[in-house]
From TrEMBL:
InterPro entries given in the database record: Carboh/pur_kinase_PfkB_CS (IPR002173), PfkB_dom (IPR011611), Ribokinase-like (IPR029056)
Keywords: Kinase, Transferase
Tree of life domain: Bacteria
Lineage, highest ranks first: Bacteria, Pseudomonadati, Pseudomonadota, Alphaproteobacteria, Hyphomicrobiales
Protein name in the entry: Ribokinase
Length: 322
C-alpha cells in the first residue's frame, strides 16, 4: 500500500462499565464488569491498521497517565504518533455505560486532544498517496477547531480528506463545518448527522443535497444507517443502498469507527466504493459481536466472513449492524 492514513482527530481513554440498564435519576447501579481501554479516534485507526493500512496519529496526546496509556496502546497496534505530548495537561477520558441491549451512553472530559494549534501540527506532514481523516470531535473544541480547519484547508488538492461529523455536530460552529465540508473528499456520517447538515428527506435526496450543496469537491458520501446498512452516492450520480449483515450484537461501541476505518482502508487500495462499503458493513458487523470499542476485525477475518454462503442468515440474539 503506497500511502498512510493520517488521523488528525482525537484519542481518549474509555472507562467502560457494563450494566443491565441505565440507572434512574438519583439511583445507583453496580456494573457487571469494568475495563480501561483506548477510545475515541483510536478505534477508527485500529480498523484501518488491521485491514492493511499504515496509520499515523497527528492529534495531541497528554503528558499524564491517560496519555501514557494511549501511547502504549498506539505502540501495541504499530500506530505512529507524530506530535509531542502536551506539557500542560493529560489526555481526556470518557465514561461509557454499555447496557444489556448493547446500547451505550457516554460522559466525556476533554483533555489535551481539545487543544491543538498549528505549531503542534508542524510535524504532521502529508506525502503523496496519504489519506487524511478528521472527526467532528476535534472541531467541536474551541481550543482546536480553528487550527484544524486552517490545516485541513491547506492540504494539497491531491490528498484525499475523509470527514466524519460525529454526534457532536451541533457543537461545531456552522462556519467551521462549512469550511471542512467544502474540502471533504469523502463524507461518512449517520442518518441523523446527514439530516442536520442537509435537511430532512429520503436518503437519496439527502445524499444528493450533501454533494451538491455542502461537499462540492467530494468523490462521494456514505450514510450509515445501523441495521439497514449504508447508502452510498458518488459525485457522478451513481448510488446504491448497501445491505447490512445480520449478526448477534453484544457491544455496538466503536462500530461506526470500525466502518469508517475499513471503508477508507479498502478505498486506499483501489477497491471500488460500493464494494468498499460492503466490506465496511462486514467489518462493523463483526465488531459488534465482540466486546470493546477497538474490536475491529482483520482483513482476513472480513474476507472469511464475506466468503460464507450463510452470512445473510439470522443468528440467535439481537440483530444489529453499525
Amino acid at each position: 500500500m503506497s500511502g498512510r492514513l493520517l488521523h488528525v482527530g482525537s484519542a481518549v481513554v474509555d472507562y467502560v462499565y457494563r450494566i443491565d440498564a441505565l440507572p434512574a435519576p438519583g439511583t445507583e447501579k453496580t456494573a457487571s464488569s469494568y475495563a480501561q481501554v483506548a477510545g475515541g479516534g483510536f478505534n477508527m485507526m485500529v480498523a484501518a491498521s488491521r485491514t492493511g493500512m499504515k496509520v499515523a496519529f497527528g492529534g495531541q496526546l497528554g503528558s499524564g497517565p491517560n496519555g501514557d496509556f494511549l501511547r502504549a496502546a498506539f505502540a501495541a497496534e504499530d500506530i505512529a504518533t507524530l506530535t509531542p505530548p502536551s506539557p500542560v495537561i493529560d489526555s481526556g477520558n470518557c465514561v461509557a455505560m454499555i447496557s444489556g441491549d448493547a446500547e451505550r451512553t457516554f460522559v466525556s472530559w476533554p483533555g489535551a486532544e481539545s487543544m491543538l494549534n498549528l505549531d503542534m501540527m508542524a510535524s504532521v506532514r502529508v506525502a503523496p498517496g496519504d489519506w487524511v481523516f478528521a472527526s467532528g470531535y476535534t472541531l467541536s473544541y474551541p481550543g482546536s477547531r480553528d487550527a484544524l480547519a486552517d490545516w485541513i484547508e491547506a492540504l494539497p488538492a491531491e490528498i484525499p480528506f475523509v470527514f466524519d461529523p460525529t454526534p457532536v455536530i451541533s457543537d461545531i460552529p456552522r462556519a467551521i463545518l462549512d469550511r471542512v465540508l467544502a474540502r471533504t473528499s469523502w463524507l461518512s456520517c449517520n442518518t441523523a448527522e446527514a439530516v442536520q447538515i442537509a435537511g430532512a428527506g429520503d436518503v437519496e435526496a439527502i445524499a444528493a443535497g450533501l454533494l451538491s450543496n455542502h461537499c462540492p469537491s467530494a468523490d462521494g458520501v456514505i450514510i450509515r444507517a445501523g441495521a439497514k446498512g449504508c447508502f452510498v452516492r458518488l459525485a457522478d450520480g451513481s448510488r446504491q443502498a448497501v445491505p447490512s449483515f445480520k449478526v448477534a450484537a453484544v457491544d455496538t461501541n466503536g462500530a461506526g469507527d470500525t466502518h469508517i476505518g475499513a471503508f477508507v482502508s479498502a478505498l486506499s487500495r483501489g477497491v471500488p466504493p460500493f464494494e468498499a462499503a460492503s466490506y465496511a458493513n462486514a467489518a462493523a458487523a463483526l465488531s459488534v459481536t465482540r466486546h470493546g470499542g477497538s474490536s475491529a476485525p482483520t482483513d482476513q477475518e472480513i474476507q472469511t466472513f464475506l466468503s460464507h454462503d450463510d452470512r445473510m442468515t439470522t443468528v440467535h440474539g439481537r440483530e444489529q449492524e453499525a
